[in-house]
Design brief:
The structure holds two protein chains of two kinds. By secondary structure, chain A is mostly helical. Chain A has helices spanning 33-40, 45-54, 56-60, 75-96, 120-131, 135-162, 171-193, 198-212, 218-226, 234-267, 273-276, 295-320, 326-329, 348-356, 363-387, 404-424, 426-433, 437-470, and strands at residues 16-17, 64-65, 103-105, 117-119, 289-290, 293-294. Chain A is globular, with a radius of gyration of 26 Å. The longest helix of chain B is centred in the N-terminal third of the chain and has 24 residues, at 27-50. Chain B is 13% helix and 21% strand. Classes of the chains: A mainly alpha, B alpha+beta.
């Protein structure tokens, strides 16, 4: 991108005053970017008609978007676009899916099951996958888009965390965003249940059992969320999961996304000063204005490219790397659990936390591993801006290297999730290393406790030393 | 800041351009505010309470699955297709051999449900140790519930002669009463006491009582 605009007013070149910043900043150096933009993209009649009525130019199309040399500010957009893909592919799948568990005779192309009795939900997913044009592609795109949705949200949160973009006055969007992540995880759990294959039966059983371990309200929550026992009452649970997955949680997600973006529009983004300030721009420390490129045409083009790349990536992965191959897994059976069962990667850390709890903790171990540990991790994440909150508003991103404590904590938290995920794959790890589970267990316990602490200490020490060397230590 | 200045019941208000921050509010106003809070509270409680309808109405799928009778004294053990099992040829003692068995329904056929799924194993009779209920073994056969006591998955047997749960790796030793030897589970798999039928051929496997403990995560 060569075109960079001084703030958002492509119409009148006025700097955009922050809602909390008092006076709009001083005179912004005039650039001819707006003029050039108008010459390059001459107005047409429709645009003018809309513009005169909706003031597109001033309020919407001029919205300043962050300039960032590293592209990390685009991660949120990737999350948004994967959500769009999820909505599109999900609509396709939802029209063909049948949320019922009664046995039906599958008659279709999947030879392995042709003529056999399988649950209706499983049969309908077989039909989608093997008997519907583009059906398998749509299913795989949906699954991969879900993976990327959660991955993009997580990476977006890393960016926000490590650059301190959650700080005053941006706490609300951290709260909304982490709620969004929670909704996305819940949505993933419900969606996983729907094909009613033997993996989804297992995962839903474990989710049901975990909910039941919560003291006092456990069985209330079980009935609220599942609407019946699982798997015994699967005929009640699966339709409920379907409703939650295609209506309630998506509605909550849309609401949270709208709120997230409304707050962003109102507050403006945090700027990465090295990317957005410089020659002919306001000073690096002038936070009375926000500098960025306008939505139209610059950011529009960038976002279009991001959308197309996201769609291409999802399509590529869906085309070449099939996931959740239900024909290979088989339908839900009451009498067996597949030998290499495991959750999607974004639940692997919860799976690991459940696995690591020692036997002597008894019932409390189930509660601790399945509910307390995940809730603590997610809870600390959600309220983090309350724990680390500067008194005065900050409008610029920080360099992670300048924040030893926060950066070290962030690295340790990421490491904790990684080692818990490794714990979740314990059987695979044991097989790869050629040792038994029992031999591996104490090492994994040490790793789970030690690695985050070790990483915290090393990162903290290195960054402190760097600060001292640069003579900025406080 | 405003205060009531008339004694009519209209809400006439006037600005009182004083900067004293603590103009006493009339009781009326406090009452009205409290009333609004009360109504908001009732509304909120009703909204939350409405989620409890499911709960109050009872669960369609019933969270309580523990009432179903599985085995009583004399229930025959059958395979998935409902064929009765004979002690002579169901399993051999040579290797770690096991199979899924089920209680026979009244009038024949197998009761194939998750809770009813039973793991039948056979070892040489002198291999059993406490806390196995030796009385409950028959000709080297022993039977346990297949439902893991950790999170309710179904155990398998791919870890040597131990029973392993594929979900979270709990291990049970079937020669020691299926007690936990590894992983997060805290209770052993309940044993099903076995016997040999006393009828004419005297070879059919049957249960001599119900499971000796709660199945899976049931209390």
């Amino acid at each position: 991108m060569t075109g960079t605009a001084p703030n958002d007013g492509s119409g009148d070149d006025r700097p955009d005053a922050r809602p909390d910043g008092g006076e709009a900043g001083g005179d912004l150096p005039e650039t001819d970017l707006t003029v050039r933009t108008h010459e390059a993209y001459p107005r047409n009649a429709l645009f003018d008609w809309l513009d005169q009525r909706l003031e597109l130019d001033h309020t919407l199309l001029g919205k300043a978007f962050p300039e960032d040399n590293y592209g990390s500010f685009l991660l949120g957009e990737i999350a948004l676009f994967t959500f769009v893909i999820l909505g599109l592919t999900g609509t396709f799948l939802g029209l063909l899916y049948n949320p019922a568990v009664n046995s039906v005779t599958y008659e279709g192309n999947a030879l392995q099951y042709a003529g056999t009795e399988v649950p209706a939900a499983f049969a309908s997913v077989l039909h989608i996958t093997y008997d519907t044009t583009f059906g398998m592609f749509a299913r795989m795109m949906h699954h991969w888009a879900a993976y990327l949705f959660i991955a993009a949200i997580a990476l977006h949160m890393f960016r926000v965390f490590f650059t301190g973009a959650y700080r005053n006055p941006h706490e609300p969007n951290w709260f909304i965003g982490s709620t969004l992540l929670l909704f996305a995880l819940v949505e993933g759990f419900f969606g996983y249940a729907l094909p009613y294959d033997n993996f989804s039966k297992t995962a839903t059983t474990i989710g049901f059992q975990m909910t039941g371990t919560i003291p006092v309200v456990g069985s209330f929550l079980q009935s609220l969320v599942f609407g019946g026992a699982f798997p015994a009452g699967a005929d009640q649970v699966i339709p409920r999961m379907f409703f939650l997955h295609v209506f309630l949680i998506p509605a909550a997600l849309v609401g949270a996304i709208v709120l997230h973006m409304a707050v962003l529009m109102r507050q403006k983004h945090t700027e990465h000063a090295p990317s957005s300030r410089g020659e002919g721009r306001p000073d690096d420390d002038d936070d009375s204005v926000v500098v960025g490129m306008p939505l139209f045409p610059q950011q529009f083009l960038v976002s279009t490219i991001v959308f197309l790349l996201t769609a291409a990536t999802v399509a590529f992965l869906a085309g070449f790397f099939p996931v959740q191959r239900i024909a290979a897994i088989g339908p839900a059976t009451p009498t067996s659990t597949p030998s290499h069962v495991g959750p999607d990667w974004f639940f692997m850390w919860v799976f690991g936390s459940l696995k690591m709890m020692p036997s002597w903790l008894g019932e409390w171990g189930r509660f601790a591993g399945g509910v307390v540990v995940p809730s603590l991790i997610i809870g600390v994440m959600m309220i983090w801006p309350l724990l680390d909150n500067p008194e005065h508003p900050v409008h610029f991103t920080a360099d992670p290297l300048d924040r030893p404590l926060q950066t070290a904590l962030g690295v340790a938290a990421v490491m904790l999730i990684i080692v818990l995920s490794i714990d979740g794959m314990r059987a695979t790890v044991a097989a790869v290393l050629g040792v038994s589970d029992a031999v591996l267990y104490p090492w994994l316990v040490a790793l789970t406790v030690g690695m985050p602490l070790f990483d915290f200490a090393v990162v903290y020490w290195l960054l402190k030393r760097r600060k001292r060397r640069l003579g900025t230590a406080g | 800041m405003s205060k009531r200045t008339t004694d009519t019941d209209t809400d006439t208000e006037t600005d009182t351009d004083t900067d004293a921050p603590d103009i006493p509010q009339t009781d009326d106003e406090l009452t009205r505010r409290n009333m609004a809070k009360l109504l908001a509270g009732i509304g909120g409680a009703a909204a939350i309470g409405s989620f409890g309808v499911d709960y109050a109405a009872g669960l369609p799928g019933s969270l309580d699955t523990g009432s179903e009778t599985l085995y009583v004294e004399g229930t025959r053990l059958v395979d998935r297709d409902g064929n009765p099992l004979t002690a002579a040829d169901a399993l051999s003692t040579d290797e770690f051999d096991k199979m899924d068995v089920f209680p026979e329904k009244e009038g024949g056929g197998a009761l194939v449900t998750k809770r009813a799924t039973t793991l039948l194993l056979r070892f040489p009779e002198d291999e059993y140790e406490a806390p196995t209920n030796i009385e409950g073994t028959a000709k080297g056969y022993v039977a346990y519930s297949k439902v893991c006591t950790h999170e309710g998955c179904l155990v398998a047997g791919d870890q040597g002669s131990e029973l392993r749960c594929p979900c979270h790796g709990s291990l049970y030793d079937p020669t020691k009463g299926a007690s936990v030897t590894g992983g997060p589970a805290s209770r052993s798999l309940p044993q099903l006491p076995l016997g040999i039928a006393d009828d004419e051929d005297g070879t059919l496997l049957l249960a001599t009582g119900p499971f000796e403990g709660p199945i899976g995560t049931e209390e």
